[in-house]
């Protein structure tokens, strides 16, 4: 019975944490920039063009340089990719996405280190990998590495 009550308390706390994340500035900014991106006709046109040429590129890649359209499709793919990358709405959305991912990575590291310094949390972010590789047992310990987690 006690284990069930503890599990319920943990689930309640995890719901509270999820709500806090959803209410965070990073999550709100992510939602806003995503909606701006989805609502912008020019951005969506650029993305659709890139998706179409990317599908052609994948088809051409099956044959490599021997495909008759290899050079043209490769050139167009790079051009459309550059167009999408230079789109202000796409760039803003990607920044917001990275900010939210960094917040989630930091939370994951804090939770994992609270349980054990030996738990590995894949973040894909070199900033966190450097911190977690600290010689004093991880940054979650607030040890001699100088960080205060």
Automatic annotation (TrEMBL):
Chain segments annotated as transmembrane: none
InterPro entries xref list: Bact_com_dev_regulator, Com_YlbF, YheA/YmcA-like_dom_sf
Gene3D superfamilies: YheA/YmcA-like (1.20.1500.10)
Pfam families for the chain: Com_YlbF (PF06133)
Coiled coil: none
Superkingdom of the organism of origin: Bacteria
SUPFAM superfamilies reported for this sequence: YheA/YmcA-like
UniProt protein name: Lin2161 protein
Source species: Listeria innocua serovar 6a (strain ATCC BAA-680 / CLIP 11262)
């Amino acid at each position: 019975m006690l284990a069930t009550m503890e599990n319920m308390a943990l689930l309640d706390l995890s719901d509270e944490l999820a709500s806090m994340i959803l209410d965070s500035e990073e999550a709100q900014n992510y939602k806003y920039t995503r909606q701006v991106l989805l609502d912008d006709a020019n951005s969506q046109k650029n993305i659709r063009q890139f998706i179409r040429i990317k599908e052609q590129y994948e088809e051409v890649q099956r044959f490599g340089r021997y495909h008759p359209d290899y050079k043209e499709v490769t050139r167009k793919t790079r051009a459309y990719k550059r167009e999408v990358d230079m789109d202000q709405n796409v760039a803003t959305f990607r920044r917001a996405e990275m900010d939210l991912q960094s917040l989630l990575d930091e939370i994951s590291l804090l939770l994992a280190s609270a349980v054990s310094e030996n738990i590995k949390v894949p973040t894909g972010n070199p900033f966190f990998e450097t911190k977690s590789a600290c010689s004093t047992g991880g940054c979650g310990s607030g040890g001699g590495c100088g960080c205060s987690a």
